[in-house]
């Protein structure tokens, strides 16, 4: 069964993360399928923009702790979103955790329903939001993201919009996105591609400068003793040993 489904209507291709059994966790398989689907969108002249959404109550729970992708594969996926010469729009009607926030940061526009929730939960399993910082840090308020990186606290959609993770949130996410999609359909392919290059130039500088080091940091942390304890505790639904 595919982990990413694709549909097309009036210039908009919708890619749906469809692995609800593990809350659309970023497994090696899902990351590979999504990267390939985005590449196909970039090769299809009928695609004016891409909407990235999900089945189930979670956009993405972050890395699949049982079958995680290599850090380099996650870097490649995030870079594929950033460099795609079509706008990528996140549509969220559920929760987003850890690595899922890296996808959100890579998208050009992001909308969520007001009952969505967000958390950088890496510190609570003994790792750090390393690779996803490539897309999150350029988009977000530094003081706010310091708090949420360091504490792993959960925050709501209104706070996510305030700190720059979301473009818009509301009771009806599709109503909030309707003028966005209409605007994209009225825009030329060339205009969208060149405008996106202007908007993503600084983000790509971060990839070129930091991606290798952040991938190495992620690999080192995930192989550490504290991460093994944190991931085991998470899977066993208990507190890790360091909780005071």
From TrEMBL:
Similarity-based family: Belongs to the enoyl-CoA hydratase/isomerase family.
Protein name: Enoyl-CoA hydratase family protein
Protein species of origin: Streptomyces antnestii
GO molecular function, one term: catalytic activity
Pfam families per record: ECH_1
Gene3D superfamilies the UniProt entry points to: 2-enoyl-CoA Hydratase, Chain A, domain 1, Lyase 2-enoyl-coa Hydratase, Chain A, domain 2
Matching InterPro entries: ClpP/crotonase-like_dom_sf, Enoyl-CoA_hydra/iso, Enoyl-CoA_hydra_C, Enoyl-CoA_Hydratase/Isomerase
Extent of the signal sequence: none
Coiled coil start-end: none
């Amino acid at each position: 069964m595919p982990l990413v489904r694709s549909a097309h209507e009036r210039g908009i291709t919708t890619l749906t993360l469809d692995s609800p059994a593990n809350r659309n966790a970023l497994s090696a398989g899902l990351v590979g399928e999504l990267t390939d689907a985005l590449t196909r969108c970039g090769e299809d002249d009928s695609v004016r923009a891409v909407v990235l959404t999900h089945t189930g109550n979670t956009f993405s729970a972050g890395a699949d702790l049982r079958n995680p992708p290599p850090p380099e594969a996650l870097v490649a996926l995030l870079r594929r979103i950033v460099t795609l010469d079509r706008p990528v729009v996140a549509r969220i009607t559920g929760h987003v955790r850890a690595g899922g926030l890296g996808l959100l940061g890579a998208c050009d526009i992001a909308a969520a329903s007001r009952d969505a929730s967000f958390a950088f939960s890496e510190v609570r399993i003994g790792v750090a939001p390393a690779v996803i910082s490539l897309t999150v840090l350029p988009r977000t308020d530094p003081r706010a993201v310091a708090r949420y990186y360091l504490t792993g606290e959960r925050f709501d959609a209104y706070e996510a919009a305030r700190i720059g993770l979301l473009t818009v949130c509301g009771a009806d996410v599709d109503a909030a996105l309707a003028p966005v999609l209409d605007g994209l359909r009225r825009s030329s392919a060339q205009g969208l591609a060149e405008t996106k290059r202007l908007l993503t130039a600084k983000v790509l500088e971060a990839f070129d400068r930091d991606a290798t080091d952040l991938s190495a940091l992620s690999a080192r942390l995930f192989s550490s003793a504290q991460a093994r304890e944190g991931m085991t505790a998470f899977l066993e639904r208990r507190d890790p040993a360091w909780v005071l």
